[in-house]
């Protein structure tokens, strides 16, 4: 159980399970906490185990989790290379890792998980920890498959999906600006245009550089969205970009080397708290970079 001292304190929760994506998630979370302050909660959950005694009676009491303790020791060593011990806490539990991370997310600023999505919808709907946490967490969630490289049009940027229609888009933009400000990164507000698209282009708000002609509707949409948030973060350099094609594919192309790709998710219908929207699911499944999913 998480100690009471963390209640109400700005902190990040990360799950570790010993797999490669989990270690990448831990490295991302440690860097985030080192730059933004607060505390880090490292969570490991091992499955419920039942031991049958020779007489057929079930054993009672907790089952030792030696592998889990070794895993947490390694995680603490990684986190301790950047953070002082007083800013790190570990949580161990028995049961389901997704359920535990969702529970911990109630008091978290952000929840970080390794991205293990494969694109097989049936398996994801019923067995993916990543998808369940993304859909059900009470905080924004960052899914990390691997850390980004430094090549591409928006390398090192926080890339935010802007559709201009739904509250989740504005929430995502605010989260993106806050992350960019905390990490001293530039931000690229990206709109995917499916109609009247003449080719990808972008505008640098400080240099007023424009590549290609822009559909006025797309420019106006981006301007309105950015102007709601940008005045609160005057030190964040901003680019506004319009990319063409299907929304999820366009966002992956724009964010292929971004420091973080941020997507607002509104879900759909009665199951909106159980399932991700199609764009969010597609981006998280196929993007190689860290992706933050933010709900309205």
SSE inventory with pairings:
Elements: E1 11-15, H1 20-36, E2 39-46, H2 66-80, E3 88-94, H3 97-104, E4 110-114, H4 121-127, H5 129-136, E5 141-144, E6 158-161, H6 167-183, E7 187-193, E8 201-204, E9 209-210, H7 216-229, E10 238-244, H8 247-254, E11 260-265, H9 278-286, E12 291-295
Parallel strand pairs: 1-2, 1-4, 2-3, 4-5, 6-7, 6-11, 7-10, 11-12
Antiparallel strand pairs: 5-12, 8-9, 8-10
Helix pairs in contact: 3-5, 6-7, 8-9
Mean pLDDT: 81
- Cα(first) to Cα(last) distance is 28 Å
Give the class-level CATH name of the largest domain.
Alpha Beta
- Kindly estimate the percentage of residues that lie in beta strands according to DSSP: 15-25%
- The spatial strand order of the largest sheet comes to 3-2-1-4-5-12-11-6-7-10-8-9
Percent of residues in helices comes to 25-40%
Question: How many beta strands in the DSSP annotation?
Answer: 12
Question: Based on the structure given, which CATH architecture of the largest domain is correct?
Answer: 3-Layer(aba) Sandwich
Q: Enumerate the spans where pLDDT stays under 50 for 5 or more consecutive residues.
A: 1-8
Total number of distinct structural domains = 2
CATH homologous superfamily heading of the largest domain: HUPs
